[in-house]
């Protein structure tokens, strides 16, 4: 089999890249290790920047998002038992974010791809990439007990943090920067109306971080900071709801509607960047190249901006016969990535309880939170990063 761009991974990065390339008349095939149902079953991101929404509109999959997504004009910060609104829209010159689950984004992109008859191989085993440092890169994989080879001009590694593309690059050609945080997030999805349908709520309390988000007017997504070695089985629904309420201001806590969880999972928090993002004819995009802690809601949005830059580069290569976009991809993408890394690290540092902060460190966090909600300048920094820096 032959194509122009072979994409590894059918997460949001791979699917959106496939859609952008198809729209520009560039042939592509996606090779995914899991089944489509498995990919859709992973509950992850929920907040889309305007730039991400615009890209989904551009590839023609925005209808359901606009019908069912919820626009948020502000966020709220809870600390010392009090809630403070940050007018994200007012402070960012009119920009907003949209609550619409990653599962739904993926679903819409998968449906569109299927309708267009574009090729996606699910449940591909033993995926390997070859010869990306030469001119004839190739992917091999096993499907239905048969070995296949896919020849391409380029390989896009959109296979997430644990994928094989970054791992296939020789160690001396790549530099990795990493920070692992000493806690995780326990997330619960429940079919109850969200306590805060108009603003995402981020809480800092003595008991740790908490977050109130949503997927729809009848489906809520909540998180609490938990110990790294906690197991989901230790967290009954009752324990989760009690813990969440204990970390919010009394008024908000009293309005939480509880119910049985339909999903519950623990995610570790990590900051990670691999440089560069291009190795000959292999290009990394999305979580394959970088991870942010979820506090800033940036992971999926960065995957979207990466593939926008990457599709621009391929469009330039095939349309204008110019290498410039391809040569500049890594540097262009990394500029935006490092800014999002900084924001996610800062908001994580500000909102969580760290085991070794000490009394002075705690006073610094308290002072920064007070300063933030009282300062138009610092609130503007929060707002302009939250809605997404320009592409
Ligand atoms: P994905 O989604 O991990 O997709 C990679 C795909 O590659 C496949 N794969 C392979 N395929 C073939 N061969 C192999 N060897 C392969 N190895 C792996 C995988 O099966 C998978 O289908 O990466 P992508 O596309 O780069 O997308 C990134 C996003 O998923 C991620 O950044 C976000 O979910 C992060 N994130 C958030 N981002 C936001 O923008 N806003 C948010 O509100 C937000 N909240 C979150 C989050 C992530 C979370 N977790 C669980 C880490 C909340 C949480 C709790
Ligand atoms: C979510 O809705 O899952 C969500 C919202 C905001 C974040 C992270 C996750 O910062």
Report on the biggest sheet: 8 strands, mixed
Report strand order across the widest sheet.
6-5-14-15-16-13-17-20
- What is the C-alpha radius of gyration, as a whole number of Å? 21 Å
Let me know the number of strands: 20
Q: Provide the list of bound ligands, each named once.
A: 8-demethyl-8-dimethylamino-flavin-adenine-dinucleotide, P-hydroxybenzoic acid
CATH topology label of the largest domain: FAD/NAD(P)-binding domain
Strand content: 25-35%
Protein model, in words:
This protein is of the alpha+beta class and 391 residues long. The protein folds into two domains: 2-72 and 99-179 and 269-348, 3-Layer(bba) Sandwich (FAD/NAD(P)-binding domain); 182-268 and 355-387, 2-Layer Sandwich (D-Amino Acid Oxidase, Chain A, domain 2). The chain is built from twelve helices and 20 strands. The protein has helices at 12-23, 36-41, 50-58, 63-68, 88-91, 102-115, 237-246, 250-255, 299-320, 324-351, 358-374, 376-386; strands at 5-8, 28-31, 47-49, 70-72, 74-79, 82-86, 97-99, 120-121, 125-130, 138-143, 146-151, 154-157, 175-190, 199-205, 208-216, 219-226, 261-275, 278-279, 282-284, 290-291. The strands form four sheets. It has an eight-stranded mixed β-sheet with strand order 6-5-14-15-16-13-17-20, sandwiched between helices. A six-stranded mixed β-sheet has the order 8-2-1-12-19-18. Helix 1 (12-23) runs parallel beside helix 6. The two termini are 34 Å apart. It binds 8-demethyl-8-dimethylamino-flavin-adenine-dinucleotide and P-hydroxybenzoic acid. P-hydroxybenzoic acid binds at residues 45-47, 200, 211, 213, 221, 294-295, 297.
